[in-house]
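Field reference: sequence -> structure
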Amino acid sequence: MDAKQVIAALGALAHETRLAAFRLLVERGPDGVSAGTLAEALAVPPSSLTFHLQQLAHAGLITQRRLSRQLIYATDFTAMNQVMAYLTENCCGGGAAQCVPVCRPAETGAAEPTDRRSA
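Structure field:
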């Protein structure tokens, strides 16, 4: 992933509604969730949510598929991991053995993230 793609991804995430939608999609996993369910969970009007989801899709962070009459959105975990890899590729001076993993979605029982806002 190059710098322009990472900038587009971070720019798409730089909005409260889009960030909340992306985090909810990450939580739901590769199966994704319908647009209606997302709109309800985020308390966002469907027309507004569509705009925000298109921004995330344009940045390559999520996918969209049709299931009957519903649109299903899901995280593109490959893209997400590429952004994370780009941001952390030189972590600890390039000594990956010294770095603590940031994201372990495939592991069960991973530690819950802390709320850094209260720190």
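Note: Confidence is low (pLDDT under 50) at residues 108-119.
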